[in-house]
Write a structure and sequence with these properties.
One of its GO terms (cellular component) is ribosome. GO terms for molecular function: structural constituent of ribosome. Pfam families: Ribosomal_L9_N (PF01281). There is one protein chain. With about 220 residues, the chain is an alpha+beta fold. It is about 35% helix and about 20% strand. Strands 2-1-3 form a 3-stranded antiparallel β-sheet. A 3-stranded mixed β-sheet has the order 4-8-7. The longest helix has 17 residues.
Length: about 220
C-alpha cells in the first residue's frame, strides 16, 4: 500500500506544481500503469487471444498491475489510444484476410452411381481378413482333425461392417450384407451382398459377394 500512497502524492504534487485544475489531462493509460494506481482499470487492446479475457483486437479493461507486469512486457496488449488502435486495425487487415467463400457442389445421380460402382468393385475384388481366438474347450473335444475349429466369439454382422469400413474404407449399411447367422469357425467365406440393381455386375460374376477370411491370433 505504500507505493500506492506514494503514487497518489506524486500526482498531487505534479498538479500543484503545474497549477493544473483539469484532471482529465492525467488520464493517459501509461501514466496510471507506471504510477501503480490500482483502483482504476485500464482500457487496453489485446494483440493475442487470451482465455477468459478476450480475443485479439478486442478492447478490455484490466488492472494496471496486470497490464504493467504481464501484458505489456510480453506485448500481449497495448494501451487503448488512437495510434495503437490504428496499428492493430491495419495489421488485422494484412494478416487476417477475408475468408474465401466455399462453394458447395452438389453431386448428381451419375456421380453417385459411379461412386457406388467403385465401392462395389472394391468390395468384390478385396478380401477381408479377421483374427480371432480359438475355443480351446471345443478344440480339445473334436472327434477328428478334420472337424472345423470353432471361434471363442463368433463374428457378427456389425463386426463385419466395422471391419469393411476400417480395412476397405467403404461404408455399407446392415441391409447391404446378408448374414443370417454369425461366422463361428475358422476358414474362408463368401458373404452375399445386397446392392442396388443399377450397379452392373463384373464379367463372370453372378451376384455380389464379400470374401472373408478368419485366421487365428
Amino acid at each position: 500500500m505504500a507505493y500506492i500512497q506514494y503514487g497518489r502524492n506524486a500526482l498531487r504534487q505534479i498538479i500543484n506544481d503545474a497549477n493544473i485544475h483539469n484532471r482529465d489531462c492525467l488520464m493517459h493509460p501509461l501514466l496510471y500503469a507506471c504510477q501503480g494506481i490500482r483502483y482504476r482499470k485500464l482500457e487496453v487492446i489485446l494483440t493475442t487471444s487470451i482465455e477468459k479475457l478476450g480475443k485479439a483486437g478486442e478492447t478490455v479493461k484490466v488492472a494496471p498491475g496486470y497490464f504493467r507486469n504481464h501484458l505489456m512486457p510480453k506485448l500481449l496488449a497495448v494501451p487503448n489510444i488512437d495510434k495503437f488502435a490504428y496499428l492493430i486495425r491495419e495489421q488485422r487487415k494484412i494478416y487476417q484476410p477475408e475468408e474465401e467463400k466455399v462453394q458447395v457442389v452438389t453431386k448428381n445421380v451419375e456421380d453417385k452411381t459411379k461412386e457406388y460402382e467403385k465401392a462395389a468393385n472394391r468390395l468384390i475384388n478385396a478380401q477381408l481378413v479377421l483374427r480371432r481366438f480359438i475355443n480351446v474347450e471345443k478344440f480339445r473335444a473334436r472327434a477328428t482333425k478334420d472337424d472345423p475349429i470353432e471361434l471363442r466369439s463368433p463374428v457378427t454382422k456389425d463386426e463385419l461392417i466395422a471391419e469393411v469400413a476400417r480395412q476397405l474404407c467403404v461404408q455399407i449399411e446392415p441391409e447391404n450384407l446378408y448374414l443370417p447367422t454369425p461366422l463361428s469357425t475358422f476358414g474362408e467365406f463368401e458373404v452375399p451382398l445386397r446392392l442396388p440393381k443399377s450397379i452392373p455386375l463384373p464379367e463372370g460374376k453372378v451376384h455380389w459377394t464379400l470374401q472373408v477370411k478368419i485366421r487365428g491370433k
